[in-house]
Fold these 4 entries.
Entry 1:
Amino acid sequence: MTTTTDAEAAAINTFNPKGASVDTVTPKGAAVDTVDPKAGVTGPDGSKTDIRRLDAYSHILPAPYFARMRELAVDSGALKRWLELDALHDVDARLRMMDTFGDGYQQVLTLSSPPIELLAGPRDSPALARLANESMHALCERYPDRFPAFVASLPMNNPDAALAEIAFALDGLGARGVQVFTNVNGRPLDDPAFHGVFAEMARRDLPIWLHPARGAGFADYAAEDTSRYEIWWALGWPYETSVAMARLVFSGLLERHPDIKIITHHLGAMIPYLEGRIRLGWSEQLGSRTAGDDLARLRSTTPPRPPLDYFRRFYADTALSASAIGIRCGLDFFGTEHVLFGTDCPFDPEGGPGFIRETIRVLDALDLTAGAREQIYHGNLLRLMRLPG
């Protein structure tokens, strides 16, 4: 029997869709589009074919699920942002937008935030996850050329039901992985309650998509009640992802499941940029800032390999608001075999096409071999999902 903790109840009661899901970025000035996103490749016989670009991280709220989500929202006015994004919940608008990028552009569907466990308690979240998964499955069945696969959503505040939904969605609906958020109503992912989810996905050898979760209620400082200036999103989300990755590393998850496949949103967040800090500060110096019982506990639980070795095992998408600097940094850290084309569509200032177009522009301008570019655009993701090329 699953019960709701005080922390979970508080998270549910204070849920604010607008605060939980503002996924927008407004770059200062749109980048110049110097690459045709519909451009193809020329084969040895001179024929032209579309480049296959399989978007690993685009978000959707299927219409049946979105309707139920609107019923559950405490403040309907807080849904304004989502209502403005037609491509998020209107499949016809989404398909029209995708058509502008040619036949080679496809999306693996992932459910948009907020996490299911913020919308419903443990008793009701399994039905909500089921609705989301059946709705995404229906879209893949109806439009297989555009949506060749979907990622299952889980009721993580009910771990037994989450395991049952993995079986149903993967075996019954054909989902090619699952999505989890960086915390479950404030509980860390290395909580023993969630070990079974990770173990099951490792056993199945299918990937876990990892998305940040943090709202305005998470204050910037202990003396304050709320975050200001949308810091909770701009800096809080990368921090959330980085912390979740670190907790999975230091809790020994990647040692217990060395072949587990976890796809981190936003190109591994802060980890690539902080490579030197992690390499030096968490190797020989690990424990130099800790004392007493905490030090003994740290030494007894630290995995045997250098932490950086584990961090490099994660996979990461290119959804960095088309930042060329960030994408180069992530590629340097993870290598082309662990980086996947992802855009965060449709959460750009244009409501869908902006991040797709500009991410393609950045990737096509990088000094990559044709083979490496194919890996990033579709090869790596197809391999992780165990789908044919």
Entry 2:
Amino acid sequence: MKQGEVELALLEFIREEFLWGDEDRELTLSTPLLEWGIIDSLRTAVLLTHVRERFGVYVSHAKVNSRNFRDITSIAGLVLAESPEHDPQAEPVAASTADRENS
């Protein structure tokens, strides 16, 4: 599982489930999800269920915070970090894609 794959899957899920398609394509990987009210406590629960079903990753309640859920890149990084396949010796996963988008 790669950062870009997780980001794309999360982007599409959030567009379809929370923004009813986002026809204007305003949602990006760095959109501030909490600040814009795109996710709230109920939608976070729905998103966590999707992550568990789609990626087989259980995110503990201790990891559900504004830093880890600020944008799609952050959520994807969390999913990869919590994945059973994650190698803790590897470089951080969230920074690379965010850097590409901001370039």
Entry 3:
Amino acid sequence: MRVGICGGGLGGVSAAIGLASLGFEVDVFEKAPLLRATGAGLNLWPNAGRAIYGLGLRERYDAVSVKLDRYLGYDREGQPLFNVETQDWPEKYGAPSVGIYRLSLSTMLAEAYGMEKIKFGYEVKSVEDKGDKAVCHFTNGESYECDVLIGADGIYSTIREQIIGGVSFRPNDHHAFRWRAVVDLADVDVDPAAQTGFYTPGGWLSVIPIGEGKAYWFGSVSGAATLDDFIAYFSAWTKTHIPRTLAMTPREIIVESPLYDVDGIPYTWTQGRITLLGDAAHPMMPDMAQGASQTFIDALALRDAFANTSDIDQALRDYESTRRPAANYVVRCSQKGSFLGRNNVSPIAIRYQQEIETQAG
């Protein structure tokens, strides 16, 4: 069977690894000229780890990730708000919670699949479902025919737009932007085995170790529209590391991301021999840090669906029926906002146990 995957990010390449393990001919097309590494760092949870292990990547994943032993929360005065110990999560949940450098993760996946197999510079123009085949047309003038086409082309998916119509987005009700950067871990006064966050109802900033001697900081401030607004909010937090960390971070490496919430969850993922995966299927807010984790679960579920039947259409139905309700539940969880926000939710490590693991997703 021939499978085409549009999108060479985390979801596309992990899906390729899973499907290739079944002996399928798999081709990955990526619009960027090089391997994508947006996002700087990631917190991946045990559900992601279980999926990655299930794809046969345990040793590679463990080698590039940093196990998090606890989640620590403080107020602006440096007084403790919570301490969630996670050292036993590998035994309890089958995998650890980790911090990871996104480029290291992307490179690990690409090397496991075969970097030379990824076709860079292929941007989707349009797709066609032809009953027992699917065709993808690219902006470079080339076309590709396959038995199954996977749209892993991100939150603003061209393939999703074509097969099910537009999904609209609205500014997030809690925070309009998120700022983030990668710095040297030794320069940040935090526990090197923890996610350490400082929180008030109006804003927060967290740090996680991501390997290679690096740390990833990320945060949001309600009402902040510029980086200057964001930095100014923390200027008086002198009993924390934050003013010093922001001051030492070169402004040119700080990434600003507008936060848009999906206004209406995709009602289906599949049209004929074309289906969706990852952010294309379930765009979600980052407040549960589950976007990438859910993508890896998609990839494993897709592989398992095809492993369990030789009927292509049945496999696609099984994949969507397994994953869409579960992923949409996580989308709704992610819309509740962050700790000390207006919805008064618990810290993320507690929410993960209560809201995600209880649903086995």
Entry 4:
Amino acid sequence: MKKYTKKIMAMVTVAATMVTGTAIPVMADDAPTIRLITWLTPSNPAQKPSYDAIESFADDHADEFTLEHENIVGDELKAKIKTDIAGDTVPDIFIYWGSGGNSTMLLDADVIIPFDEYLDASELVSRDLFPEESFSRTSSKGTLTTITTSLQYGVWLCNKALFEEYGLEYPKTLDDMIEVGKVFNENGITPFAMGSKGGNPAHEFVAEILGQMPDCEKDFENLTQNYTIDTLTFIIPWKLSTQ
């Protein structure tokens, strides 16, 4: 069966295209097969409602298309999509990580329909249905490349007893963290501790630190456009706070 489109829409849009029912009906003898890749699994209680909604929608529209739903968890999904991009076998709809760098990669590879184009064509889905603060993470070169399905927020947990013992205020900025780190280091206390398996979730906190650096806008632009960054820009201040 032929695909319904030569380009691909990243899912980061599946909630809009599949769950809300904006698929275009076609004749049964010309029904396409849609290949969907997500990290959603029915065994995960947090993901099961979304997984079930997709499967239910596919069942309700079985006369219009056949859904092939592949489940790939964690960083294996990153490797899979990059391999598919290189081999020109990108799935029709897929979930990926929202970031300026990833958005630029997908846009430059010319394998997705930019979400701006989707919004222009859709009669049911509009830009105001999505949080404005998410657009910067899924845009590139002035184009809303993909759309977010969820936002995550990370927090630091502070040892209240230690802050009270040394008369310290909870840090609110990078400069505050550096000053707190100096006091703790002087007293033989490790200022910060965080688990990060395979880079997760350390990249989120490093991004927050980078966002407080001088000229951070230029750094982010370089990161999203050229996929590179001067690591010394934020490594040196970070080391000052932890040594």
